[in-house]
Amino acid sequence: MIICLDVGNTNIKFALFEGENLKLSFRVATEHKKTSDEYGGQLLSILATNGIAVSDVTGGIISSVVPPLDYTLERMCRTYLKIKPLLLGAGIKTGLNLRVDNAKEVGADRVVNNVAAVKKYGAPLIVIDFGTATTFNAINERGEFIGGVIAPGIKGSLDSLVNGTAKLPRVEIERPEKVIGTNTVTNMQSGIVYGFAGLVEYLVKKIKKEMKAEKVTTVATGGFSEVIAKEISCIDKVDKLLTLEGLRYLYYLNSEAK
């Protein structure tokens, strides 16, 4: 069994795979000040609750966009799981050609998502990740990453709206019945849900036009992918486990390469 960690700015997503089968997935909050012992204790508690022995975990891989936590989580794996995890970065084989100005600028999460999407759905593709940021990734017909878009994230936009005003409340991110809200809560929900749906629809249309491909599949992942996908027709697939499955694939790809 292997463990995959997708370290984002808001959450750390964990998954345990036995071969291709997902045995367990969960997430914890990303906290920069938390120690490897604190993360380790949290992990052991969750494994024990789900009946998974530490000795069952024989390998692991980490994708991180939070560099200060890289050593912390590597140490957690070494100390509590007795494994040395792969860290996605220089020297890791991905099979993805990055046709951009500076390949080093491309986030690990985007690389993993693109690798997984090409493997599962073929190319050409647009891969949208509704995370802390909303990223759009364009994959050409040869399976090469040719660039994309980084837009504000849904939750971050709501936080900015609430924190930057004196009277607007924090609301649940869910679809209101109508675009025209009749109270403050539904006004805000409409702006977030329908506003981002419009943003996605417009950007996908523009990206497809520039790609000049006959048929482009659009895949969405991330926490709010289902909420937005219900409002627009340009998203063909919603795949909440795309990043974690990509990490599983990259783990075995690099293990076989050794």
Q: Going across the major beta sheet, what is the strand order?
A: 3-2-1-4-5
Sheet of most strands: 5 strands, mixed
Named CATH topology of the largest domain = Nucleotidyltransferase, domain 5
Helix content: 25-40%
* Form type: globular
Count of structural domains: 2
Overall pLDDT level: 94
CATH class of the largest domain: Alpha Beta
Poorly predicted regions are: none
Computed structural class: alpha/beta
- State the helix count: 7
Model description:
The chain has 258 residues and is an alpha/beta fold. It folds into two domains: 2-87, Nucleotidyltransferase, domain 5 (2-Layer Sandwich), CATH 3.30.420.40; 103-246, 2-Layer Sandwich (Nucleotidyltransferase, domain 5), CATH 3.30.420.40. Helices cover 38% and strands 23% of the residues. It has seven helices and ten strands. The chain has helices spanning 36-49, 70-81, 108-121, 154-163, 184-211, 225-229, 242-257, and strands at residues 2-7, 11-18, 21-29, 59-64, 86-87, 125-130, 133-139, 145-152, 217-222, 237-238. It has a five-stranded mixed sheet with strand order 3-2-1-4-5, with helices on both faces. The chain has a five-stranded mixed sheet with strand order 8-7-6-9-10, sandwiched between helices. Strand 7 (133-139) and strand 8 (145-152) form a beta hairpin. The radius of gyration is 19 Å and the shape is globular. The mean pLDDT is 94.
Task: Name its key features.
258 residues, 38% helix, 2 domains, Nucleotidyltransferase, domain 5, 7 helices, 10 strands, five-stranded mixed β-sheet, 23% strand
